[in-house]
């Protein structure tokens, strides 16, 4: 267990400016996705501040842990993380899926959470790539 915590501490011990870029990008991304999900009536958070808990307090640390892994590994580990997050959000009713939304229409209501997890797992490899590019451009 000590080896695991050493790994985690090593991965999250990053330049504070990099952490700031992650937080700004993920918060903006989260607010945009929450707005889009509500606008097209797919799904939304029950409360706006859930963007902070999900995107910054959950997804940023996982992104840091997955940083540097190949795309497919980031996606696979991200899928596990997002599966748990999506399952928990809908089970606890802290997220709301609009009835008969476009995801339900294409994939069936029973596949909604799976579809959301499959989509949002892309955030980890894409987010790490985007943050890396922005960080390098600003702090070169």
Automatic annotation (TrEMBL):
<feature type="transmembrane region" description="Helical">
    <location>
        <begin position="18"/>
        <end position="36"/>
    </location>
</feature>
<protein>
    <recommendedName>
        <fullName>DUF2809 domain-containing protein</fullName>
    </recommendedName>
</protein>
<keyword id="KW-0812">Transmembrane</keyword>
<feature type="transmembrane region" description="Helical">
    <location>
        <begin position="112"/>
        <end position="131"/>
    </location>
</feature>
<feature type="transmembrane region" description="Helical">
    <location>
        <begin position="48"/>
        <end position="66"/>
    </location>
</feature>
<keyword id="KW-1133">Transmembrane helix</keyword>
<feature type="transmembrane region" description="Helical">
    <location>
        <begin position="75"/>
        <end position="92"/>
    </location>
</feature>
<keyword id="KW-0472">Membrane</keyword>
């Amino acid at each position: 267990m000590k080896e695991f915590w050493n790994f985690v501490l090593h991965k999250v011990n990053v330049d504070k400016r990099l952490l700031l870029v992650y937080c700004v990008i993920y918060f903006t991304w989260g607010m945009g996705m929450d707005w889009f999900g509500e606008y097209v009536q797919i799904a939304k958070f029950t409360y706006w501040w859930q963007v902070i808990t999900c995107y910054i307090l959950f997804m940023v640390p996982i992104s840091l842990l997955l940083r540097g892994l190949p795309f497919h590994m980031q996606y696979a580990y991200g899928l596990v993380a997002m599966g748990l997050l999506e399952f928990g959000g809908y089970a606890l009713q802290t997220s709301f899926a609009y009835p008969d939304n476009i995801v339900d229409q294409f994939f069936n209501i029973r596949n909604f959470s799976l579809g959301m997890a499959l989509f949002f797992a892309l955030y980890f490899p894409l987010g790490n790539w985007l943050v890396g590019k922005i960080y390098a451009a600003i702090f070169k």
